[in-house]
Amino acid sequence: MRAVDLVKDLLKGTSVFLIGMMGAGKTTVGNLLATELGYRFFDTDSLIEKVAGKTIKEIFADDGEESFRELEALVLSDLSAYTKLVVATGGGIVLRQMNWSYLRHGLVIWLDASVEVLVERLQDDTTRPLLQTADPVSALQKLLNRRRNLYAQADLHIQISTNDTPDAIAARIIAEIPTVLKNPKYPLD
Ligand SMILES: Nc1ncnc2c1ncn2[C@@H]1O[C@H](COP(=O)(O)OP(=O)(O)O)[C@@H](O)[C@H]1O
Ligand SMILES: O=C(O)C1=C[C@@H](OP(=O)(O)O)[C@@H](O)[C@H](O)C1
Ligand SMILES: [Mg+2]
Long-range CB contacts (< 8 A, 24+ apart) of 165-169? Predict the structure, then answer.
C-alpha cells in the first residue's frame, strides 16, 4: 500500500489544519498536501480577504488587528464544519482559545521553522503587517516566544530545516501521520 493511501485510510476524511509561524510554509505546503490527499485546499487569509473585500494589509490598517482576528475566527468556524479539507491557517490563529475548538475538528499539524529560516523567506515581504517594523527579526522572535507553547498543542510537530523543499515537507507529513493516528484494522499497532 502506498504511504498516501494508508494515510487516506487512517484519516477517513478528517480535515487537516496547518498551524505555525508566518513564513513556515503553511500555504505552500498545504496546497501540495491537499493535492496528494485528494482534499480541497483553503487558506484562511485568502477567505478573509474575500469576505472583507480587501487585503490583509488593508484590514489591519483600516480596522485593526482585533477586527482581523474576528474575521479569522469566523472563517475558521465555517471551515470546521466540512470534511476532506486541508486548511492553511494564519500564524496567529492559535491565540484565541475558542479557535482550538474549531481546529480540534481535524488533525492539527505544526510546521516549525526557526526564526533564521523565516527571516530568510520573509525579508522582502510587505504583505504581513506584523513584520512591517524597523526590526522584523526581533518581531518574529517575540511572536514565536509568545506562541511556541500554543503551537506545541498540535497533534503532529514537523520540524523544518533550511533546505527542505515544499514537496519533501508534504511527503514527511504523509509519512508521519500514521505515528499519531491509530489504524483500527490493526488495533494492537
Ligand atoms: N520549503 C520551502 N522552501 C523554500 N521556500 C519556501 C518553502 N515553503 C515556503 N516557501 C516560501 O516562503 C514564503 C512563505 O511561504 P508561505 O507558504 O506563504 O508561508 P505561510 O503561509 O506559513 O506564511 C513564500 O515566499 C514561499 O514561496
Ligand atoms: O502570524 C500572524 O499573526 C499573521 C500571519 C499571516 O498569515 P501567514 O502565517 O500565512 O503568513 C496573516 O494571517 C496575518 O498577517 C497575521
Ligand atoms: Mg499563509
Answer: 166/25, 166/28, 166/29, 166/32, 167/32, 169/25, 169/29, 169/111
Q: What are the boundaries of each domain within the chain? A: 3-179
* pLDDT profile of the chain (189 residues), mean per 10: 93 98 98 98 98 98 98 98 98 98 98 98 96 96 98 98 97 97 65
| Nearest residue (CA) to ligand 1, atom 25 | 121
Neighbours of ion ligand 3 (CB under 5 A): 26-27
For residue 88, which atom of ligand 1 is closest to its CA?
21
| Global confidence as pTM | 0.97
CATH superfamily of 3-179: P-loop containing nucleotide triphosphate hydrolases (3.40.50.300)
